[in-house]
Amino acid sequence: MIDTRHLPGLALLLALAGIPTIIHSYMGTTVEDGLSPAAVPPRLKGLDARPGRHTSAWVQDTYGTSNFIEREYGDNLTLFVARSYDPKGLYHHPENGIAHGDSYDRAVVIRTPERPDVPMFVLDNGDTRRSAYALLYDGKFIEQPIRFQIRNAVSLLIKPKALMTLFFVRGRSSRGGSATAHDVESLLLAAADSFMAQKGSKPR
After folding, report:
1. Do 10 and 82 fall into the same domain?
2. How much is the pTM?
3. 125 and 57: one domain?
4. What is the per-residue pLDDT across 3-47, written as a single tens digit (0 to 9) for each?
5. Scanning 147, 181, 186, 196, which has its CA 20 to 30 A from the CA of 115?
6. Whether the Cβ atoms of residue 72 and residue 122 lie closer than 8 Å to each other
7. How many separate helices (H) and strands (E) can be counted in the chain?
8. DSSP notation for 103-140
9. Going by DSSP bridges, is the β-strand pair 77-84/108-110 parallel, antiparallel, or unpaired?
10. Containing domain of residue 123, as a range?
11. pLDDT one-digit tens code per residue, 161-176
């Protein structure tokens, strides 16, 4: 038996424990910022794009979202931008999706002198492939996604869900040439800047 003196406190604890379930399961509360991957222009860095090869069903199955764009720039660059309310679906080895089969080493985080505000995860297989990606959440670029998830664990339970954005550029070599580190990184930054330019948004 529970002493009746403890019932108010117990009821309060149960109510607090139910808040995340109510917010996310019943109310479905989310933060809409009005930004869209589709607003990234087809022409970037002097290159015109053509549609990528992956279907909406494939992206949904791989990344858990249908809010994306995929574009080919020239023969050697692929731009992929996706948004999701499930951050882990985007930050956990995103190369296993859009760059599947490239056999990359571990990602290395770099910051270019021109844009130290944007940490980029660079992947290189030392041969014919080089890719880079960046993660944006609530107006800030994320350098340590696992620490981000842990640090925000409590707030993510009780606050409305916000969208994470993945910017991924896959570079490769072909008979017509190869994508350099500069090509990959500059296209990624151009895509991120054009995305953030919507409604005058700026990274913080």
Report:
1. no
2. 0.81
3. yes
4. 566 555 544 444 444 444 444 444 456 677 889 999 999 999 999
5. 147
6. no
7. 7, 10
8. -----EEE--SS-TTS-EEEEE-SSSEEEEEEEEETTE
9. unpaired
10. 31-200
11. 889 999 999 988 755 5
pLDDT tens, residue by residue, 38-75: 999 999 999 999 999 999 999 999 999 999 999 999 88
Angle at 143 between CA 139 and CA 144, to 5 degrees: 115
Pairing of strands 120-124, 108-110: antiparallel
CA atoms within 13 A on the CB side of 74: 21
Residue 53 DSSP symbol: S
* Residue reference for tokens 């985080």: 109
Residue 184, C-beta contacts closer than 8 angstroms, at least 6 positions apart: 77, 122, 130, 131, 132, 169, 170, 171
Q: Could you tell me if 77 and 168 lie in one domain? A: yes
> Which residue shows structure tokens 């994320």?
142
Beta-strand runs (E) in 18-103: 43-44, 47-51, 67-73, 77-84
